[in-house]
Amino acid sequence: MKKLSIIVPVYNMAADGKLDYCLKSLVNQQLSFGEYEIIAVDDCSTDESYEILKDYMARYPDKFIALHSEVNHHQGGAKNIGLAKARGEWLGFIDADDFIVPDYYERLLKKAEETGADMVGCDYTMVTDHSFNVGKIVHNNNYSQTGVMNKERYRNLLIETGSLVVKVYRRELIVGDYVPGTKDKLDIFPEDIFYEDNAVSNTWMLRSKHFEYIDEPLYFYYQHDASTVHSISMKNLEDRMTAGREIVAQAKDNGYFEEYKPEIEFQYTVLFYINTLFSAMPKKSGLKNVYGFCKKLAIEMKETFPNFQDNEYYKEKIHPEEKKQVSYQMKSHLFFYIYYRLLWFYRGLRNGKKNA
Questions:
Q1: Angle CA(191)–CA(226)–CA(80) in degrees, nearest 5?
Q2: Hey, which residues does 66 pair with through a beta bridge?
Q3: What is the Cα–Cα distance from 153 to 319, expressed in whole angstroms?
Q4: What pLDDT was estimated at residue 221?
Q5: Could you give the angle at which helices 196-207 and 234-253 cross, rounded to 10 degrees?
Q6: DSSP string for residues in 42-88
Q7: Cβ contacts of 227 within 8 Å, gap of 6 or more
Q8: Three-state SS for 213?
Q9: How confident is the model at residue 273 (pLDDT cuts 50, 70, 90)?
Q10: How many Cα neighbours within 13 Å face the side chain of 111?
Q11: What are the tens digits of pLDDT across the range 33-73?
């Protein structure tokens, strides 16, 4: 067994040195020789990504494993392949266009050893260049979630889970007692969708017995136009909805839906409904049949959680203007649609623009 396995899903990241910069930050981690392994899984890339991975494996055979999927199953599929091979007592993930400070994993694992935690996270910084100059800091978690877990800490963690990649996990939280190498792929993440992390991470959070957090930006989240989070497409929006449905299914299948129903309801409301609705509606999204799509979205929202507007987290955390528009749609989709379009037409005129 290794102390740590780092899973890196890769798809078309060769351009502009993105993949190379990420991998350099991994092979140069301040951990002892043979203590960790990097499992990079090429998800059927059409660029030179897999060649780069094979080059790293040739140069670092003691700690770098390059795998290739013949079929593109998105990040979920690549992670499932990597997890099947992982031999680490701890598991970590990183997106192939991001990078980390040299002592990232050393510090997270040291925190775990000092406290007895089985899950440790930190903050991240959003950057637009390949350097370690700290940009906008995002607090990925908070101290109200840390310590030996109880119901209140679980609730806090479910409401603000933070990013999956900005944490390390004891392997049993994710793969249980699975023996490494006995399968080609595990069935942990949903495949063929984006937002696969959102779909399953709640279950891991609730398996944790002790969570700790380092209040520093040790992970660098690289911003660029090709990033999935910057694209608005019907596929992207439908995947959010699929992930939202999976959040509810996971909670029911694993027996924590009723105990944490307000938290699950709020998560679903934000991911499945709020974020999807207000991504689809602007004209600049360029989507077809927005009227029909958003109408169906509202219908499913009401069918799944009829009283979501009474949720205390919803009342506290959703912006008043969004809550007003949601209330309009819940009463009349036609009225909401007309109101939204007129509102943004007026704002566009006021700002000297024609498109909202």
A1: 20
A2: 40
A3: 25
A4: 97
A5: 20
A6: E-S-SSSHHHHHHHHHHH-TTTEEEEE-SS--HHHHHHHHHHHH--E
A7: 97
A8: strand
A9: very high
A10: 24
A11: 689 999 999 999 999 999 999 999 999 999 999 999 988 88
Please measure the distance between the N-terminal and C-terminal CA atoms of the chain and give it in whole angstroms. 55
> What span, in angstroms and rounded, lies between the C-alpha atoms of 338 and 16?
43
Q: Is there a contact between 276 and 301 (Cβ–Cβ < 8 Å)?
A: no
Residue 121's H or E segment, with its range, is: strand 119-127
Q: Where are the alpha helices (DSSP H) in the chain?
A: 18-27, 49-59, 74-85, 104-115, 151-159, 171-175, 196-207, 234-253, 261-268, 275-280, 290-304, 312-317, 320-331, 333-350
* Cα 287 from chain centre: 24
**φ, ψ of residue 234 in degrees (nearest 5):** -65, -35
| Tokens read off for 267 | 């998560």
Residue 32: predicted pLDDT: 82
| pLDDT score at 230 | 52
- Residue matched to tokens 């390059």: 66
Residue 42 pairs in a beta bridge with 10, 68
Q: Which amino acid is at 220?
A: F
Q: What is the pLDDT of residues 204-233, one digit of tens each?
A: 999 999 999 999 999 999 997 655 555 689
Contact present, 213 and 141 (Cβ < 8 Å): yes
User: Strand, helix or coil at 27?
Assistant: helix
pLDDT value for 18: 96
Q: Which two tokens stand for residue 104?
A: 């990232």
Kindly state the helix (H) or strand (E) to which residue 3 belongs, with its residue range: strand 2-10
CA–CA distance, 16 with 299 (Å, rounded to integer): 43
What distance in Å separates the CA atoms of residue 350 and residue 345, rounded to the nearest whole number? Answer: 9
Q: Which position has the token pair 């009474």?
A: 310
This prediction has a pTM of: 0.93
